[in-house]
Amino acid sequence: MMNFEKTNKNLFLSFWPEFKEIVSAQETYAFDPDMSQQQAYSIWVEQPLESYVLVENDIVLGSYYLKANAMGPSNHIANCGYMVSKHARGQGVARQLCLHSQQRALTLGFKAMQFNSVVSTNEVAIRLWQKLGFDIIGTIPKAYQHKTKGLVDSYIMYKWLAEKDL
């Protein structure tokens, strides 16, 4: 049975090889491919408001962080990042991570969610986010240095989460 757990040091360490592989691939995340385990832990677990893992049989299938996208008058918009283990891809894990993060965002008082840089070549993720109600609200031309495709665009994606505008 799959269940969500707040990410702690041990859970992150068990996910670290997958995290490192995803970042090193330089296909989806604008993180330093040479970042240390401690830097990754800080960015993914310590700095955000929350970080969760989806676990099945003591194996971390995926993880996400949740934080405010901006401060002050824009702190009602959440921002998340998601990673799925390569052996769990195509099994609905990203969908579960995104749905869980939206519920957590609402619980924490956020009214909307924004993804600041979805790499345009990450077509599977883009289709999923759109199916889950996110719209592409902007394109950042040549924003991402893809390891094999060179400079590619990134999208800003957004979804209003609250049922009514307060």
Task: Tell me about this structure.
With 166 residues, this protein is an alpha+beta fold. It is built from four helices and seven strands. The protein has helices at residues 9-25, 37-46, 93-107, 123-131; strands at residues 2-6, 50-56, 59-68, 77-84, 112-119, 135-146, 150-160. α1 crosses α2 (37-46). The mean pLDDT is 96.
Specify the structural class. alpha+beta
Biggest pleated sheet = 7 strands, mixed
What is the first-to-last residue Cα distance? 38 Å
Continuous helix count: 4
The CATH homologous superfamily name equals Gcn5-related N-acetyltransferase (GNAT)
Unreliable stretches covering 5 or more consecutive residues: none
Tally of extended strands? 7
CATH class descriptor name: Alpha Beta
Alpha carbon gyration radius = 15 Å
Q: Looking across the biggest beta sheet, what order are the strands in?
A: 1-2-3-4-5-7-6
| Elements, N to C (H/E) | EHHEEEHEHEE
Helix content: 25-40%
Oligomer: single chain
Key features of this structure:
single chain, about 170 residues, alpha+beta, Aminopeptidase, 7-stranded mixed beta sheet, 4 helices, 7 strands, about 30% helix
Topology:
Elements: E1 2-6, H1 9-25, H2 37-46, E2 50-56, E3 59-68, E4 77-84, H3 93-107, E5 112-119, H4 123-131, E6 135-146, E7 150-160
Helix pairs in contact: 1-2
Summed up:
This protein has helices spanning 9-25, 37-46, 93-107, 123-131, and strands at residues 2-6, 50-56, 59-68, 77-84, 112-119, 135-146, 150-160. It is α+β, with helices and mostly antiparallel strands. It has one domain: Aminopeptidase, CATH 3.40.630.30.
